[in-house]
Amino acid sequence: MESDSEMVAFPLVLTPIESNYRACTIPYRFPSDNPKKPTPTEIAWIDLFLNSISSFKKRAESDDTVPDAPVRAQKFAERYSEILEDFKKDPESHGGPPDCILLCRIREQVLRELGFRDIFKKVKATETVTTRNNGSNGVPLDEENAKAISLFGDVVRLNDTIEDPGKHLENLVRGLFAGNIFDLGSAQAVIFVDNSGADIILGILPFARELLRQGTKVVLAANDMPSINDVTYPELIEIISKLKDENGQLMGVDTSNLLIANSGNDLPVIDLSRVSQELAYLSSDADLVVLEGMGRGIETNLYARFKCDSLKIGMVKHPEVAQFLGGRLYDCVFKYNEVSS
Question: Which Gene3D superfamilies does the record match to this protein (predicted)?
């Protein structure tokens, strides 16, 4: 985790004078609420995080990189449960009042204090594979990423065979879990990526490749540290290195305008008031920002306003989010905001 001194505001978010930026989409409380009494929304979300503890405990128990993992996993479950129950008694405890960012951050802090760094690593179960794109020798790759890499060429070739420009773009966007079409005439784009496996490899990367083919400079921003199954900066570098051919191309497309940035983030959600200096520098002139995934594009930043065009993409996976948005579970969100020149 980078120190606070190294974190800066994302330069493309409108300044507080222009827009009162608030990372969390769902307001857990309002100024008129009693600061010492939890709101119904806070209770609902605290219960959601309480109900997820058992799955996190199970993942932690099986982490063979941590000594006495089962014992430490039990300590995690007990400690995090106690903190969440404390929030129900006093919303201002533990740095509250709680919101989705704080609840995620505390969960990660408790795990890391007990020695757990990446408890979802086994979801991807490392194995040795040979990628079909460059014919390289077998290398250790995460299973889900390896499966997706083996399908990448087929997905790209299918996209490339669609001659109608509108249908071609629609198919790419459907790969990002939406069916809308928008103008890809950007000179530079910043894409905040989400999950490992099919999400990044079969969804984001074909989309990014199309932008590159049209002459767009693309910055892919990935997490600094592991959180759930989100792809990290080192993992993304490795994935792309396996997909490039011997000429450094991505299925025939030059990648000299493709940059990978460490966002500085360590959560499945993101507060754009705190990103890495590297990302801020690389994205200062971008004219399209893409926030992909429920955590970054829906639960946080759905209503964030930018100095450039923006696109928020994700699938609704929590009933509480669906209820707030007036939609249904597993609805796809595709929110495109164009900034007038």
Answer: AF1104-like, Uncharacterised protein PF01937, DUF89, domain 3
